[in-house]
Amino acid sequence: MYDRGRFSGAEVMVRRTSDPLWRRIASDIQKQIDDGKLAPGEQLPTEISLSKQFSVSRFTIRQALASLERQGLVQIEHGRGIFVAERSIPFLLDSRTRFSENLKRLGLSGERRFIDATHDDASETVAVALDLSPGDEIITASALAIVDHRPAGLITDYYEAARFAGIDKLLRTNASRTAALAAYGISDYVRHSTLISSRMPSGAEAKLLNIPRTRPLIESTKIDVDTTGRPLAFGVASFCGDRIQFMIE
């Protein structure tokens, strides 16, 4: 026999067994996650709603949710809600790292969605990376990394303005960096160096990525060079820490 309820628009059935009730509820929610009925990042009903739907106490629901959280299946964010945990995407970092190729290899859809581009004076950090002098004109281009129709990260690239005049216009119409560089006769480039770190997002970043400010970002700071070793671009990619895993080869 089954206890029947409603949960996220799908019929919930909790089998009567000798297992504790909280464990049966946890197993049912886990099955919905495994079957794809509850998608990564999807918000679950509140404890009160779940207790009504399963006809149990809030304490029992808390036990079930705590078990799911320990297994890494849900995230409980106080003041915000309960969410199905994200599935981490293994993102390969090697000498020829390409955003679109990484996703294609995994059978995922994705895009770099252009946000903005500005002309700025190079900071000391950017100048050193691009072999320029501090204050030289650079073009700063930012984009939102979309994976399977959901925001996964923010990408900011810095280019020498004298060498890549107009690249901001190309990126506005086609956010593919590889295609934009090809317009300047650059058919190939490689990763010279990568620095990986982590930090918390700003309010603006959290809003763009649709995450709370308490969720960390994993950040890749890199320098790309052409086949002669001349710097092409300095960039910083900040990904949601629970959505991306870096693999280094």
From TrEMBL:
CDD domains registered for this protein in UniProt: WHTH_GntR
Keyword Transcription assigned: yes
Bilayer-crossing regions: none
Coiled coil segments of this chain: none
GO biological process: negative regulation of DNA-templated transcription
Superkingdom of source: Bacteria
One Pfam family from the record: UTRA
GO molecular function: DNA binding; DNA-binding transcription factor activity
The HTH gntR-type domain, residue ranges: 19-87
Keywords: DNA-binding, Transcription, Transcription regulation
Gene3D superfamilies noted in UniProt: Chorismate lyase-like, Winged helix-like DNA-binding domain superfamily/Winged helix DNA-binding domain
The keyword Transcription is annotated on this UniProt entry: yes
Annotated signal sequence range: none
Name of the protein: Phosphonate metabolism transcriptional regulator PhnF
Originating organism: Falsochrobactrum shanghaiense
